[in-house]
Please model this.
Amino acid sequence: MILRIARKEFVDTWRDGRFRLGALVTALLLVTAGLLAWRQTERMAQEREAAAALERENWLEQGEKNSHSAGHYGVNVFKPLAPLALFDRGIEPFVGTTLFLEAHRQNQASFVPAQDATAMRRFGELTAAAGLQWLAPLLIVLLAFGSIAGERERGTLRQTLSLGVSPLQLVLGKTLGLGIALSVLLAPLGVAGLIGLSQAQVDPAFGLWTRAGALALAYGLYFALALVGGVAVSALAPNARSALIVLLAMWAAGCVVAPRLASDVAHSRLPLPALAEFEKALGEDLQNGLDGHDTRSKQMEEFTARTLKEYGKSRVEELPFNFYGLAMLESERIAGTVFDHHFGALWDRIEAQDRFVTSCGALAPLLALRSASMALSGTDFTHHRHFAVAAEQHRREFVRVLNEDLKNNAKPGDHAYVAGRALWEQLPQFQLQPLSASTALSVASSGLALLGAWLGVALAALLWAAGRLRSTLA
Amino acid sequence: MLEADKLTKRFQERLAVDALQLRVAPGEIYALLGPNGAGKTTTINMFLGFLAPDDGEARVCGVSVARDPVAARRLLAYIPEQVALYPRFSGIENLDYFSALGGKSHTRQELYELLERAGLQREAADRRVSGYSKGMRQKVGIALALATGAKALLLDEPTSGLDPAASHEFSRLLRRLASEGVAILMATHDLFRAREDASHVGILLGGKLVAQFTQRELEGSDLEALYLEKLRA
Model:
């Protein structure tokens, strides 16, 4: 019975010219979004690849110089584009793509794509994820609002229930039928996605298929809850017009107002320091130490004394290595603890903001979906932090190798020492090991759980609405 | 068979149906007359299970509507004043769908034959019902009653708004269904059709059945005069 009702609902929906028009517009938007994202992603990947090659060439061709000076010469590393950024660009447009690695300093990523964007970008980027997050629910609203309320107005609801069909069978059949119609509409996107994924050259550690499967689950839950909720509202509303008004209000509140509100509240509850404040506090702690007592110069004086005592010397020039190189190593170690403290606190705060916004998914399912979608696509802050941490580790290793070279190969007190290409070649290019799919799933799990809970609530509402349906016919 | 046994329904303080005692045997057409608000549609809603009675019981072929509404509905067909159909479906597609919901499946040929028995030609059966007249919709409703093999038929103002020819054809179909053993309860304002078609006529006023006549009792009398007399009383 449910399948028979579903089949009729699908055919009826498909024959509706408004649905076909809506489907065409949605498909065009999604295809356009996909093509634009593909072109943009390919261009960005090429740009970053070319920039990385040029950077390497510059590094190798920098000529002979003191190895510590080479540390100040520095290198740029480029954030690799996540393979699923094509689908959901997440925070990518708003965080830097390039990190300058140099001695003594941990820099923040620069070259934010949104800074180069036109004013149109303020209206949001047209990506497949944005289309599915914003437009698909609107299409579902248009599909679902008249599903039961329209039948009540036409009188077919009385006709149907008078034949011995239970209200529950009816609402489930209708939901299933509309779900099939929606699936047919989204099928081309799914097929295009599968083809794209099967041809992508991706590091297996990224777990592309696991992430894609989880993304499909997240969006499936989102669409299902929107559909079930839409049919429930239609069953409860006195007429189709009221159902449409209620559903549009819910869409506007959940998809337009809630994301902005949640973001604003997150910023006010968990404020981030301004860049100048952050830099000032970082500079003070680099100078005075984290406890504010052991100044950098005092720590270095103590380190010098300890080293001289260890080797039984009275002057650094008497040490069997270049003390300046060792001092640089120690200075980097001390600075590293300060960087870890400040950047760790900043990033923890940003992740706390993200967790707060995700928890707001209990009020608006889009927020839960958005969080899961970005995490699974590899474009959320956790992935950005992974890049920043990996780049910082690379910086410390890069500076360590240069300082070790100075310590071991420069004669004590020799300020004229220079290293060359042989040393520069010892330093490997930055390679980012992708964050595993299991980590991404763990970050996305709260969003997925909230979406599951929302679907449960929507189903409960549908069951309740079905129970009330008969009494509304008299 | 349709039976109302002390069927009662209140809407807050207002008694909409007051201990209605009614029986429509197989092959009978019972016309339930009464002004607007007399309780005719409320009675039909209780037979359909859309309203729960406050007291008494409605039964269809012995099945209590309150106890087993789905089984009771399987024995019923219902034709409202405006037969509700899906406008983007043809007549035959509507019939196919609704008869499947009623638990009966038919071949396409059988569906055409059912529609033809109800007076709808094949050419019309294949057209979308959005272009159907009210009479054509009523024919699909009759075909549905035939398709589901209903033992009882509930009609709510079935001839309202039909032209005389369509009304005449509709009553011919009703009589044919009755001759096949279907019990028919018809809520109507149409005194002429009640006089012509019904084997029994009941007058409902303020939820109470104030008079009942058999066709024989009405022979040679003026139903309109009897009806108005009850209304004024």
